[in-house]
Specification:
The protein contains three helices and six strands; from the N terminus they run E-E-H-E-E-E-E-H-H. The chain is α+β, with helices and mostly antiparallel strands. The strands form three sheets. It has a two-stranded antiparallel ribbon with strand order 1-2. A two-stranded antiparallel sheet has the order 3-4.
Length: 143
Amino acid sequence: MEFDWHVECFACHYCKVPLTGEYMVKDGNPYCESDYLNLYGQKCRICDQFIVGRVLQAGGVSYHNACLRCHVCKTAFAEGQEIFTQDGIFWHTECEPYLEGMGGTESGSEYFDDDREGDTAGLESADVADLEERLEDLKVEEN
């Protein structure tokens, strides 16, 4: 920040409560974390909690990295990994073949049926076994 403050004068620009620990700065003004988040913070579209730290953005929307998961394999996306999305569905590059063979509409909006049970909605059991095998092969190749 550009200014010097008396210790007793250093307070949140919004609520005026003295700042004694961590604080955030916006336009040269200090804010307590609570006010900063309420005024300027981004919320995760999935859990509706404020995002502190790294923000994952996909399709123009913000997410916690741990919240946004591939609709096919249910794993999170690695930092810098390409994310495919259509009609609110997100998937890894390596999972795309499983979307194409699922018989959904051309727009992809019916690839997954939320009324089905379990984490494998839209996948046949043979597809799940094959996917698990391919993911295991990918993990081995990475190491």
